[in-house]
Amino acid sequence: MRKLTNDLSWSVSRAQLFQSCPRAYYYAYYGSWGGWEADASERTRTLYILKNVKPLVMWAGSIVHDIIKDTMEAVARGAAMPNLVELQNQAVLKLRNGWTEAVTKAWLQYPKKTNLFELYYGDGKSLPRETTDKIKERIFTCLDSFVSSPVVRDILATPYINWKPVDTLDTFMVNDLKVWCAIDFAYTDNEGQLHIIDWKTGTENRATLRQQLGCYALFAMEKWLVPLERLQLKGVFLLDGGRPSPYPVEPALLVSVKDQILSSAQAMKQKLRDPENNIAEEDDFPCQPNEYNCRQCNYRQICPQMAGSSNDLPEING
């Protein structure tokens, strides 16, 4: 098998982490690289484990997204659309399995297994019942919104041949830069309009979602050859009753997003000791202290900025 190489690429999440804290960015994309290898150093392995830690809210979101992806792929293969109870039962199973992985520390051997932030930086065994109930309720609310959503009804009324691959990680090029994205769902309606949908399990941040959907639009234009005037972009907010939030597709949006991608990637590149070979040194990526971000950072255990700090955990809302 060809050995993986660590190349400089771009994604919305990568750019957000770089902007939030260069040191956390270094840990995620350089310090942890190769942590899956059997001969990885202890520090590299630790950073790789920390990279895969998930806060409860993010875990809940990933469960919802996984269930939606599995559901839509099954429907495309001819299965009946499941009802809410069936989806909730799937969620309960995922919650139980993930919880077992977390408390038994299966991630020590397999770092991609569920590793929950609140347990890792807590007692490793338990959380208040109120906290876990909130997460379960959050997931159930999102699934309820999904099955009753007019957006989903429109999708199901569309021939499956008009659906694009569901939530599949892919790349496209902006100049000579590889950009990663995974469109939650996209389909072409009877009028030839391509609808790009992003399921959201949190609150709306218009600036962030504008950038994300603009990135998806660039992908659709390059990989699916869809003209600008045939694109429809929307976020669907599952914690808010499945509320659709459309984002206008305009040339100015695409120019702006493309400029953001290139300027962000250039800032990343300028931090490298050896840009040609994507070689980075930890000292060139300073910590960027921020009380809110630091309290929720996966790398608290290893970051010099957090040494000796208290282990107060962020609250879960909703």
Automatic annotation (TrEMBL):
<keyword id="KW-0540">Nuclease</keyword>
<keyword id="KW-0378">Hydrolase</keyword>
<dbReference type="Pfam" id="PF12705">
    <property type="entry name" value="PDDEXK_1"/>
</dbReference>
<protein>
    <submittedName>
        <fullName>CRISPR/Cas system-associated exonuclease Cas4 (RecB family)</fullName>
    </submittedName>
</protein>
<keyword id="KW-0269">Exonuclease</keyword>
<feature type="domain" description="PD-(D/E)XK endonuclease-like">
    <location>
        <begin position="9"/>
        <end position="304"/>
    </location>
</feature>
<dbReference type="GO" id="GO:0004527">
    <property type="term" value="F:exonuclease activity"/>
</dbReference>
<dbReference type="InterPro" id="IPR011604">
    <property type="entry name" value="PDDEXK-like_dom_sf"/>
</dbReference>
<dbReference type="InterPro" id="IPR038726">
    <property type="entry name" value="PDDEXK_AddAB-type"/>
</dbReference>
